[in-house]
Amino acid sequence: MKTKTILLAGSVLGAFAVGGVTVVAVTHEAVTDRIADNQYQAMQRKLTAILPAGASDNDPLRDHIEVEAKDLLGSDATQVYRVRHGQDPVAVVLEPVVPDGYAGPIRLLVSVMHDGTLGGVRVLSHHETPGLGDKIEELKSDWVYGFKGKSLNDPPLEQWGVKRDGGAFDQFTGATITPRSVVNAVKNTLIYVQEQGERLFEQAAETPQQIAGGQD
Amino acid sequence: MKASQGYAGLVEEGVWSNNQMLVGLLGLCPLLATTTSATNGLGMGLATTVVVVCSNATVSLVRNLVRPEIRIPVFVLVIASFVTLVELIMQAFFYEMYLVLGLFISLIVVNCMIIGRAEAFASKNSVDRALVDGLAVGLGATLVLTSLGALRELVGQGTIFNQADLLLGEAGKHLTLYLSDDYQGALIAILPPGAFIGLGMMIALKNVIDKLAKRLSGLRRARPVPSTTQPTQPATG
Fold first, then answer.
1. What is the pLDDT of residue B226?
2. Cβ–Cβ < 8 Å for B82, A23
3. Looking at beta carbons, which residues of chain B come within 8 Å of A128?
4. Is B133 in contact with B56 (CB distance < 8 Å)?
5. For residue A42, which residues of chain B lie inside 8 Å, CB to CB?
6. How many CB pairs under 8 A join A and B?
7. pLDDT of B232 over the 60 cut
8. How far is A194 from chain B (nearest CA, A)?
9. Average pLDDT of span B123-137
10. For residue B171, what are the contacts with CB-CB under 8 A and spacing of at least 6?
């Protein structure tokens, strides 16, 4: 009798598990394309914002490679999107990680034009203090727009730092560490792109399945 | 009293007199983490409401099928499934909102308010009553989350319903309310301590209102009836 009760309870529980998993699996199957599409579009909007309008005729999100340069780009695998117009290289967009943020790593999106100037910088994700370090976010302040058009010559390399360190970039009231490390990471990204030169454009693109699509 | 309660009584209890967040102090984790703005609070509240309504209905439907020994695992399964569904649907249809709340949606699974309603109410009541209870409790939670979010956003940032369009589409833009442009904001309201302080003030306010209401009704009657305060649920979780 006891065994029967246990078995019965077990099978009811099992039935619920199967039912729950089925419902979730069916829904997942139904919306998975839509979710991928959302991620793709969100990433595309971010790319468009830091590239000159109409400068390219390829789809950088599908023309991307993965590079490894932990010293300069902060992570073991960094996505690089190539922006081209016909055969001509226009820009590269990288996803470097700022390893030394105030509260953990900060993920950036940096576009470097082919002439070495910055097309723009955006923050993809961060954990900085609300109200202080989070001014690196586009929504919170204009600070991040200040990178546009800058290059390793303008300001000169030794001035790539926040003003407190004698550099050319503003820090925020109450937060120096965050902007300092972001400025440093952007500088390193520029150095990396300069070092690599045309090589970034020559590598064959990764297979489409590996599109990162900007998930966290 | 409980068994004979009508729908109106259920709603009154869920939204006010037994509000799970202000009286039960349940589900504090999402409450404190997500209420940095009114929009986030509303989004979290709506997601919680969907889950509590669905789980209440399901638990009530199967209440005679599920043996007492396995009821808790079954509740957890039901709740986890619904939360995952909500998360997927949000990702598919409210992607921008998902980017903001995504991390916390999965936390609804461990919101003891939901399993609390399943155990304390839905597993002992008919489906229609469980549905009404779920709606009322969800509405109560949404109200608390939204007002706490609005309070913290107003003090911390000087806006209310900023970026409401993430949740409500273009129409949401009209909801946004701005204080003067040069308001600097008090950072503490956005940081976690602000959530505790804000919640404390809301609980105090509710108690003051209750006390005033009692005194008023006491004055109206010639002789005050002996107080019949109903016992509140113990604070757990």
1. 53
2. no
3. none
4. yes
5. 95-96, 99
6. 66
7. no
8. 33
9. 91
10. B165
Residues of A in contact with B69 (CB under 8 A): 9
Compute how many other C-beta atoms are within 10 angstroms of the C-beta atom of residue B125: 21
In this structure, how many other beta carbons lie within 10 angstroms of the beta carbon of residue A118? 23
Closest CA to B157 of B30, B33, B32, B38: B38
Give this prediction's pTM.
Answer: 0.77
Mean pLDDT of B103-114: 84
Q: Is the pLDDT of residue A22 over 90?
A: yes
Q: Spell out which residues of chain A touch residue B36, defining contact as CB-CB under 8 Å.
A: 130
- At residue B67, φ and ψ (nearest 5 deg) are -70, 150
8 A C-beta contact, residue B62 and residue B127: no
pLDDT band at residue A112 using 50, 70 and 90 as cut-offs: very high
pLDDT band at B60 (very low <50, low <70, confident <90, very high): very high
Residue B28 is predicted with a pLDDT of 82
Task: Give the dihedral of Cα atoms A145, A151, A153, A154; nearest 10 deg.
Answer: -20
Alpha helices in chain A (DSSP H): 2-49, 70-73, 177-196, 199-202
**B107 Cβ partners below 8 Å, 6+ apart?**
B29, B30, B33
**Average pLDDT of span B75-102:** 88
Which of B6-33 are b and which e, b meaning 16 or more Cβ less than 10 Å from the residue's Cβ? Answer: eeeebbebbbbbbbbbbbbbbbbebbbb
Whether residue B66 lies within 8 A of chain A, CB to CB, comes out as yes
Contacts of A144 (CB under 8 A, 6+ apart): A121, A122, A123, A136, A137, A138
Put residue A86 in one of left, alpha, beta given phi > 0 → left and psi -120 to 50 → alpha.
Answer: left
Q: What's the mean per-residue pLDDT of chain A?
A: 87
Which of B70, B87, B106 to mutate to probe the A interface, most A CBs <10 Å? Answer: B70
For the record, the structure tokens of B170 come out as: 């273009």
Q: What is the pLDDT of residue A201?
A: 86
Nearest CA in chain A to B84: A24
